[in-house]
Amino acid sequence: MSLTNFDYTVSNRNHPRQEIASKKRNPPIFSCKSKQARIIEKIEFARARLNNLSQETPVEKRVEIFQLAEMTRARYKRKGHNSELLSRLDNHIVKKRLELWPEQEIAVDEFETEINQKYFSRWIKYGYSKEVFVKHFEFCSFLIKSNIASAMATWGDPIVYIEGIPHILREGQPVHWHQIRDSVEIKYHPKSRSNRLYDKETENPLEYLGGNRGLTLCDRYNFGDSLPVITKIGTE
Fold this sequence. Notes:
Elements: H1 3-11, H2 16-25, H3 35-51, H4 59-78, H5 84-100, H6 114-125, H7 130-135, H8 137-145, H9 148-155, E1 160-162, E2 165-170, E3 173-176, H10 177-183, E4 184-189, E5 194-199, E6 206-209, E7 214-217
Antiparallel strand pairs: 1-2, 2-3, 4-5, 6-7
Helix pairs in contact: 3-4, 3-5, 4-5
């Protein structure tokens, strides 16, 4: 072998340190789950175990599974993982406890996450049922975040159910709350200097009006000639 060829061969070999550095820069994609994926998996596992509980489940087993769920909730709350997933687990613990021990009262301190405590307190303040909040947690959370709950309470409107599913009035017609949720968005409104509800299709503001109208395309800060007649329920 010539000196030229020998030099070429050596100069193109990877040094052991270079190989280690290369492996660190390019870890195998199949090596392990991400931290977030493991957290989601553990929270969902706790929820699934709660779902399997029933009145036929022995009391000792119920206590064991509730302890698992509560430990999972406490662990990730302490670590700052205050996600929507953790909020749902928090509510699920309260919901299952109410199903299995219906004689128990629901109080704000039953919830551990700050957002659930805040939403539950508001829901009760608006005059709506504690049991509805626990049973239809995502529906109630949407009503509070969108300020629909506040408007409904102001007008004295009850929650509309069709076959046990909550609906929201829009232009006088009850609409499945999932359809409402998917057709609106919350955006900043410059005149009111606050977040407001907008229709995704038209990009126009929505107001919740009484008199069995519900969500209506109009802007109370810019009515012009299109000011609707607003009559509060129970007043002249």
